[in-house]
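Our preliminary data section would be incomplete without showing what the modeling component actually yields. Below, a chain of 605 amino acids is followed by its predicted structure, encoded as tokens that our downstream tools consume directly.
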Amino acid sequence: EWAIPGYPSNYSSLNDSIFLALPRGKYPVNQISDASLCTRILQDTIRIVHDTLKATVDAPLYVCDSLKSKIQLHVRGIFPITLVYYEAGQYKTAAIVDTSHNLWVGNGNILLTEMTDSAGCQLLLNQVFQINNQPIQLLSINRTFHCDSVKEEIQVSSTGQFPMQLFYRKNGIGEIQILSSANSSFLWGNGNYQIDSIKDATLLKKVFNIPLDIQHDTLEYVSNSPQFVCDSLKSKFEIQLEGDRPFTITYNRNGSLVSGTFNNFQTQYWLNNGTYQFVHVSDSNGCIKPMSEFFTLNFDTLAINFTSPLYVCDSAKSLIQWELAGNGPYKLFYQKNGLNDSLLMSQNQVNTYFENGTYQFQQIKDFTGCNQLINQTEILNFKTLSFTHTSPIYNCDSSKANIRCFLQGNAPYILTYVRNGQLDQLSSNQDTVDLYWDNGLYSLISISDATQCVELVAEVFNIQFSSLSALISTPVYSCDSLKGSVNLQVSGNAPYTFNYLKDGIPGNQVFAASGQWYLNNGQYQLQQVIDSMGCSLNVSQNFTLNFDTLEVQLSNPIYNCDSNKTHLHMDLEGNAPYILTYIRNGQLFQLSSNQDSFDLYWDNG
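Predicted structure:
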């Protein structure tokens, strides 16, 4: 009988001995009794100090200093305990005398088979470890630049207990990189790196102090359009490069592949005319950047030829024709009346039209920037051709019809006309021209000037004028009108106006044609006659009219003794001399007298 919590209070046996399987511990025994109920008080304690054989095994741990791996075993049982194991195929044993035991093994296949304690108890282990531990070593660092990421791939070859930690500084700031295997790689961007140390999985550490400087540029390029350089007669093609030099540029020229290597970030090509296709550019890292530049160069030397200004009638401007060679479009720089101006020309043959003014043609530039000086002055002062004229007016001095023409344009002028069916021309340098034409049928056709401008006229003139003349007779008394009659014979262009003085007082008389002019008595001074064309003719003819009405008074016939004739006295009033006409005995007789009275003595009859 005993009293231990968790166990029966007594054990029974039919034999003279009792076998109790008790674990490690302290057991107080109270008494023992037999079948006859005899009892013996024991008051004893049974102490079980032996353990059941057990073991746990830790993973191998490499110890740098020993260059071996430590396998720690945690053991319970009756010591000493014998461990049976195989190291790299060799049979080995180890005596374990404590609950904790370190087994030091080298690299290779480690097989822990069994343990046996002092009581002969056995424990099968059958644990296998493949150990290939190495000391921490940094065998190599290889660097490969990756064009796409613009980073270096750092390839680290190392030995040690993985995973390991690589401690480094980038631009002075500490960072950690995990090395998961003997060959690890990772990408590092630009910076100043310092590899300080490596710590392996056993927490052992090794210092290295290896500097790495990573400075790379992305491979890029920028190009401009080819620029023709006038002096060299070649085209300059510039390429700006970024990346790690030297650079190699490959291009195709007229079907042939060409490449060149450059150590500068700025590269210039001086290219002759031809077809170019740039293929790619590469740098020292082996990065390749495709190029897309494709162009055909066909530049010409700039040359100019232009005509003298020619006035164009329809536009009322002056034409200058330009013959250009070079690389259009072209830009003409000039001054007009002192003010700067320019003109863009897109073709090699260009007609330009300029208004009147003073032009200083300075220079011309083409698309490539080449320029050629002109330095020529043109003064344009052309006028638009126009023509007006007056109606025909008779010119008295010339006895011709005068037509005054007003011209505007560029002298000399040529007037083309037809006279009585005959073609004729008149040239003049004046802007005002007087035409003096005889009588006839005229057709005015056109007027042209020095610029070959022509204005059609198509006007017809029928000119029929007469010279002014006047024939004035001596005044004759007109019995019917009781006035003095002057016979006028005039020619010219009716009506006619006679200007005169009568008794010192001015007067005029208008006549439509030749005829009689009847004047009252008075003193007349004829001065001039003027026709409808304004022609005047000085007359300077004077006469005095003092006519009386003819009256006759006859006395009765009286015989005169002394003369033995008949006396007839006659009183006359009129304008001496008088003519007395009579018939005597059938015969006609006349008698003239200047006296206003006279006596007639007639014989019988």
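The CA atoms of residues 163 and 223 lie 49 Å apart. The chain has a mean pLDDT of 90. Preliminary results of this kind motivate Aim 1 of the renewal.
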